[in-house]
Design a protein that fits this description.
The complex is a heterodimer of chains A (483) and B (73).
Chain A lengths: L27 E2 L9 E6 L2 E7 L3 H10 L1 H7 L6 E4 L10 E7 L13 H20 L2 E3 L7 E4 L2 E4 L5 E3 L9 H17 L7 H4 L6 H7 L8 H18 L13 H17 L20 H16 L5 E5 L5 H8 L3 E6 L2 H14 L4 E5 L27 E4 L3 H7 L4 H11 L2 E6 L5 H8 L10 H9 L2 E8 L6 E7 L1
Parallel strand pairs in A: 10-11, 10-13, 11-12, 13-14
Antiparallel strand pairs in A: 1-2, 2-3, 3-5, 4-5, 6-9, 7-8, 14-16, 15-16
Helix pairs in contact in A: 3-4, 3-8, 4-6, 4-7, 6-7, 7-8, 13-15
Chain B lengths: L3 H12 L16 H34 L8
Classes of the chains: A alpha/beta (483), B mainly alpha (73).
């Protein structure tokens, strides 16, 4: 894998610098790293750096002197960085310092996180703000894009988020926190978990007036949601139209600031969602295999993974991660994608409980994957542009794409080949009861959906290294290498 | 909490039209309505928060004085 494509990127987020950019030659400033005058990120010789500008010198010195970031790094709440030569700056005229952030295994975005991941990222942000406040500092922003998942847990990636707290100043990032975390979590918990995808359309979080309008009336009875969403939205509406524009900043003492963070924490902790009711959340319990067939499949997948080089596996259609676990046991790092938020949430909860850090479950419909978003479509990289996979694992998936979504087999092969040089793919024929169920209510227009058709489509892009029938079923597993 | 140099910087920011004590640091718009409502919410919450904190601290002290065998894990 290439680390250059997977490191934290812009001034407030985990943007990805396109592969090849800044490989050699002059430094390349990330096109989305423009918001914060305090600094920006850039790529030089394939390595990601963060420049701290002179204008932020006093604040940065205070942060360094207090040792706050070092302590957060030691307890795993901050990704960490090395101080490097200021001569490496991309814009030396305004540079005060240059940092080299520790790379993140894989950059993911809030609209790809499960409910639990977004909730844990929110709680981390509040923990950091609480800790910062106690030491006379504050988070200047509270963007969900400042958080990434590294080794199974959320971490802060934006070194320049922390700054000294002005006496009695309110939290400037309060609105941003509510839009990035409280609003989507409340909608996911009280309306529909798929509302998390609204973060794709709203770059700076879900507008509070929209969240207030969409949330059911009973949320007015929740003190936290009534205050941080409904009252907040009303206050924004009133004061945005106020004339003259209010110039006075209300003051907030230490106890009131702590009370606000405590209330936000209680609100987030009070938001819960039961993942057992989505379409595929209990797929593992209604599998089409006999016990013997399931054991045989696990054994073949394990052997094929052992025979396949590469350290990063993308498990597409991972469900609750039965096969991701096999890859992780072999020492591979796994990004486990599934379109079902319930299955991914169950997977995430199981991993947290087990302390498994090598697998990152994420929600993604690969028939409509995350596009490039933000300014110039470059601030958040598209799903396909972020691939760091050495191996694609696509088990019991192709029939859902080919028959469930009418995607031609050669398009499926083309996407897999774009994502990784090697693949382990399961073909499920029409004789299988699962495919039979899928075709029961529709006309079979899939003449090419045969084993021969599958091999023809995949051989155009891959060499077939191995075929293994799964015992006690009509299914077949293929080990493939890109041509 | 705020160093003298910073105080001077803040005063300069105000003198040159900065409208808030956060202006030199903040690069996101906090929103007038959000600043107002957080002050209101925090004011309402501060009393129960303060009482809860005191009760929690008091219980902590009582637990410290209990014999080791009677303390809850």
């Amino acid at each position: 894998m290439t680390l250059s494509t997977v490191q934290p990127g812009s001034d407030d987020d985990g943007a990805v610098i396109p592969p090849g950019a800044g490989g050699s030659g002059p430094p390349v400033r990330h096109p989305a790293s423009f918001r914060d005058p305090g600094g920006f990120v850039f790529l030089r010789d394939g390595i990601l750096y963060r420049q701290v500008n002179h204008v932020f010198r006093a604040e940065w010195k205070s942060v360094v002197e207090t040792g706050l970031l070092r302590r957060w790094q030691d307890d795993g709440r901050y990704i960490g960085h090395d101080d490097v030569e200021v001569g490496l700056a991309a814009d030396p005229k305004i540079a005060y310092a240059v940092l080299r952030p520790k790379p993140v295994g894989f950059v993911s975005y809030p609209y790809e996180w499960t409910f639990g991941e977004l909730r844990d990222a929110a709680l981390l942000t509040l923990d950091l703000q609480d800790d910062a406040q106690r030491h006379g500092f504050t988070l200047r922003d509270a963007s969900a894009y400042n958080i990434q998942f590294d080794s199974g847990r959320p971490v802060l990636i934006d070194s320049l988020s922390v700054a000294p707290l002005e006496r009695d100043a309110p939290w400037a990032a309060y609105r941003q926190f509510c839009q990035h975390f409280i609003a989507p979590l409340a909608l996911m918990a009280h309306r529909d978990v798929r509302c998390g995808l609204m973060l794709r359309d709203h770059a700076d979080g879900i507008p509070l007036d929209l969240a207030s309008a969409l949330l059911p009336g009973r949320t007015y009875l929740s003190p936290g949601l009534a205050a941080h969403i409904h009252l907040h939205a009303r206050s924004q509406r009133r004061l945005s139209n106020a004339t003259p524009v209010p110039r006075h900043t209300p003051s907030l003492g230490a106890t009131r600031r702590a009370a606000l963070i405590d209330s936000l924490r209680r609100t987030v902790q009070g938001l819960r969602w039961n993942p057992d009711r989505t379409e595929w959340a209990d797929y593992d319990r209604q599998t089409s295999y006999s016990d013997e067939g399931a054991r045989a499949k696990e054994s073949i997948v394990g052997t094929m993974l052992r025979d396949t080089d590469g350290s990063v596996v993308w498990d597409l259609g991972a469900n609750i991660g039965r096969f991701s676990a096999i890859a992780a046991r072999l020492g591979r790092r796994v990004v486990a994608w599934d379109s079902d938020p319930g299955a991914s949430e169950r997977h995430y909860r199981a991993l947290r409980k087990a302390g498994e850090a090598r697998i990152l479950p994420l929600v993604q419909d690969i028939t409509n994957p995350s596009p490039g978003l933000g300014w110039g479509g470059a601030a958040r990289a598209a799903f396909v542009d972020r691939s760091n996979a050495d191996v694609v694992l696509a088990l019991a998936l192709v029939h859902h794409l080919a028959i469930g979504k009418n995607v031609p087999l050669d398009s499926v092969a083309s996407l897999f080949a774009r994502l990784a040089p090697r693949a382990i793919v399961e073909f499920v024929p029409k004789e299988d009861p699962m495919v039979g169920r899928m075709l029961a209510s529709r006309r079979d227009i899939f003449a090419d959906y045969t084993r021969n058709g599958f091999e023809r489509a995949f051989e155009a892009r891959y060499r077939i290294l191995e075929r293994q029938p799964i015992q006690d079923s009509t299914r077949m597993l293929y080990r493939l290498e890109r041509r | 909490m705020v160093r003298p140099a910073r105080q001077r910087q803040l005063a300069a920011a105000r003198a040159t039209g900065g409208d808030s004590v956060m202006a030199p640091l903040a690069y996101i718009d906090p929103g007038a309505g959000s600043l107002f409502v957080q002050a209101v919410i925090a004011t309402v919450l501060v009393v129960p928060f303060f009482l809860r904190s005191r009760i929690r601290a008091g219980l902590g002290k009582i637990r410290q004085h209990l014999p080791a065998g009677r303390r809850r894990a």
